[in-house]
Every structure is written in C-alpha cells, then in structure tokens.
Amino acid sequence: MAMQAKRPLITIITPVYNAASLIVSCIEKLQQQSSVDFEHLVVDGLSNDNTVELVRDCQQRYANLRLVSEKDQGVYDAMNKGIQHANGQWLFFLGADDYLYSTDVLEKIGTHLQQAGSDVQLLYGNVYYEAYSRLYDGMFDHEKILKRNVCHQAVFYRATVFAALGNYSLLYPSEADYEFNLRCWLSGRVKQIYVPLTIAWYAQGGLSGAGRDTQLVHDYPAITTRLVAQGQWPAAQKINLLSKVFRKLVQRYPAAVWKKACQVPGHSLTCYLAMAWMIGTLPFYLIFKNDKDSPA
C-alpha cells in the first residue's frame, strides 16, 4: 500500500494575472524562507503575457511550487480556486507585489501554528504598511473589526474554516476578504489568536488600495446584524455585541437603513433588546468617549 504524502503545514496562495514583471521575484523571495514546510501555489487567470512560462521555469528549480492556470472571475475567484487546490493545513494569501517581512517569518509563525489547539481556526499578526511607514494594526476585537479590516497578508486560516463558513463572496469585488473576516469575528464560530509578529511588507496596490467596495457598504448593516444575531454567542454577550453593532450603524447610516437591519427573522426580540441596551447606555458611551478623546 502506497504511503500518503505528508500535508505541508502552510500553503501560500498567490493569485496573478499578467504578473510577469513581479512573479519571479515573488517566488524567489519565498524560497529564501528558512522553513521549508510550505507549498507555494500560484493561481493564474489565463494571463496573456509570459507569467505562466516564468512560473513553469521556476518549477524546474523548486519542488514545492505549484501552478493552476484557468479562467477566473477576478482575484477572489482565483483565491477560491487556490483554497480548492491547496494541500496545506493552513492557508495564507500573498499578492505578487507583497512579500514576507523576513526570511524566518514562516519558521516563527510555523511554531505558533503547530502549537495552536485544534479549536483555533485563525492566527494573525501585523504587516508593515509601506505607504505610512508603520505597523498595521495589532489585535482586533469585535469593535475594531466593525471599523476596519485585518490585512489579509497578516492572516493564516486553518483550511477547514472555509468549509465551515464558505469561501470568498464574489458579490464584493474589492473587499470580499473583509466580508469573510466579518464572518470569522462576528459569527462566534471561529477562535482567533493574535501573535505580535510582523508577517509581511504590505504594498498598497491591487484591490486593497482600491477604495471602499460600494456593494459591501450597502450590505454592511444587514451582514453585521445577521452574523451576530444568528451567531453562536451566549445570550447576554449576543445582546451586548449587537448593541455595539447598532451603535456603529446609527453613526454611519440613515435611520431607515439601521432600523431595517434590526429585522433578522427569528431573532427580532434579541435585536430589539440590543437596540434598547444601546440607547440606554449611549449617554455613558458618549461621556467615556469624550473623556478618552480629551487631551490630558
């Protein structure tokens, strides 16, 4: 009986289209990592330059380099294809113009991944934001994820999390990773661990620098409310978390929008209790917020 090949600890997925000027450097920098327990999966969308030829040439030198080349519907569809073809226990997405912060990043993060309990589905750190010469952006709690996204170049997902929550939605052409991370943080189904390591240099290009996704902005009230209301949270924690969601919506959206978002089928009572809690605690929130914002 043939022995089954050992799964690599990490699959690094790089979606590309016409990336001939970037892909060789991307591949070679990854191959400089001190850890070898990873595969690099390049997902090409039928480039019409010589991207594919360059990757195939690199495959002659690197046994852990794989290529999938087929038509896709954009970068998130390519990322979904990468999820489908990946062999790794953990998945990491890296653009062709991004690169890991140091040559021992995978070795360091690999130690944390191997030590993570089976209940841990997501592990994340920081990225170095080149445009602003600073790190982005520390630990994310529920309130922080409601304001902004975790940079996907800082996140390692256990492969099974996509089977549990679904893949990236193609409804959101430039911020599907944010919508997926909202699922991870707000559903109560995914345990996350923050590791204070700098994972990657982040170049503000591609979709991440393309501005807000208007479809996600439109759907945000319904998405955030539904995720928490239907999530696996203890009752008191659910009401408290929903009140934070509603506070955010009241600040950003017209009344008709956030009132409609409260109407989650089967969870109306919970939503109304959370709204009442939000209204009742609003004066205290404003007092503490003003104190925090005031100069010392």
TrEMBL record:
Assigned keywords, A-Z: Membrane, Transferase, Transmembrane, Transmembrane helix
- Superkingdom of this protein's organism: Bacteria
Does Membrane count among this protein's keywords?
Answer: yes
Q: What is this protein called?
A: Glycosyltransferase
Where would I find the Glycosyltransferase 2-like domain in this sequence?
Answer: 11-120
Write down the InterPro entries for this protein, in alphabetical order: Glyco_trans_2-like, Nucleotide-diphossugar_trans
Source organism: Deminuibacter soli
Q: Which Gene Ontology terms cover its molecular function?
A: hexosyltransferase activity
**Stretches that traverse the bilayer:** 269-288
State whether keyword Phosphoprotein applies: no
